[in-house]
Amino acid sequence: MRILHQLGYEDALQSAAIPICNFLCRDLTGCLIHNNALYNLVQKNHGRGFLPFERQEFLQILYDGLPDKSYIRTNARVEGIAQLQNSVEAKLSDSSTETGDMVLGCDGVHSSTRSIMWDFATRVSPGLIQVKEKTSLKTSWKTLVLMTPTIPELGERDLSEDAQALADLVADIWRRRNRASVIALQEGVMEHWHRGRITLTGDTVHKAQVHPNLAFGGNSAIGGVVTAINHIQRAVEATRGCRPSSMALSAAFATYESEQRQRLKGILEMSNWVAKMHTYVTYSR
Ligand SMILES: Cc1cc2nc3c(=O)[nH]c(=O)nc-3n(C[C@H](O)[C@H](O)[C@H](O)COP(=O)(O)OP(=O)(O)OC[C@H]3O[C@@H](n4cnc5c(N)ncnc54)[C@H](O)[C@@H]3O)c2cc1C
Question: Are 20 and 40 within 8 A, CB to CB?
């Protein structure tokens, strides 16, 4: 939130968010296990609460706030990256190329940039990226996500301890859905986040949200980008007007990786714990 505040997005996000007050956890019979005060406590303890909204809305707000939109390219997937002596050249699916000093790959859990980085690493340091790392993302959980229009009477239902009322509620939400999908929840933190002039961030290297209720994946991705950019900025400043060398970039990427990777491993552990709690893996009455 501090990052989004510094970028000037806080007001727009505050007014778009739909507040949540309760976090109800029930067992398989519908019986209430706990009503978590998390949302209110975060607001009370940190002065800022959770800001829930749809991802598309979030991206639109970020896009609307950009001072210059001309460098945003859509429908132009990265298909290849050539690492040259002093630059990189990204080949895009619309047959164009982009040239620059480095690539910060944030193309999600099925990242092409990560595969390209792995191929490069294998060429320059054979054996560095092992099959174990390439197959390290595990999927132990899936989640059903439903979106409905606003249902004003939803909050007035008394579910108390009644499983039938809960079943009716879920059935009602299902009937009124305008979108539903089952999403695989991969988990894992990669061991290698950079090679040459390519570095990676977000779900590409840390799919640590396991259970989305922890709400940490996107937040960690935003924090990761800022950490990476801060180290790159320092490397650029140190060159006093020249472009940073591959070695200087590599050193900046390495510092970013070691700072973030440890943190993300901790988050992964925490999200595992939350996932077990929410899926009753360790629950007994
Ligand atoms: C159900 C659910 C709920 C969640 N809730 C929360 C939450 O409340 N809070 C939170 O912080 N996190 C949450 N997360 C996690 C969060 O969505 C992710 O961690 C976050 O989106 C990761 O961002 P990213 O930019 O790394 O990847 P993505 O959001 O996956 O973005 C990757 C982008 O790269 C593009 N792309 C892919 N391949 C290419 C290519 N070859 N060339 C160019 N572009 C490409 C894609 O089109 C996409 O736009 C949730 C996740 C799920 C599944």
Answer: no
**Which structure tokens are listed for 20?**
């949540």
In three-state secondary structure terms, 178 is: coil
Q: Tell me: pLDDT of 166 over 60.
A: yes
**Best CA proximity match to 224, nearest among 247, 207, 246, 244:** 207
Distance 96 CA to ligand 1 centre (A): 25
**Cα 153 to ligand 1 centre (Å):** 32
12 Cα–ligand 1 center, Å:
21
Q: What is the pLDDT of residues 106-131, one digit of tens each?
A: 999 999 999 999 999 999 999 999 99
Question: In CATH terms, is domain 104-111+129-149+171-285 a member of 2.40.360?
Answer: no
Residue nearest to atom 31 of ligand 1 (CA): 108
Which of 63, 209, 219, 220, when mutated, tests ligand 1's pocket best, judged by the most ligand atoms within 8 Å of its CB?
209
Name the token pair of 10. Answer: 């806080």
The residue whose CB lies within 8 Å of the most ligand 1 atoms, and thus the one to mutate among 3, 62, 63, 107, is: 107
Closest CA to ligand 1's atom 50: 212
Strand ranges (DSSP E) for 86-195?
88-92, 97-100, 103-105, 138-147, 179-189, 194-195
Determine the atom of ligand 1 nearest the C-alpha atom of 111: 38
pTM for this prediction: 0.89
* pLDDT tens track for 80-91: 999 999 999 999
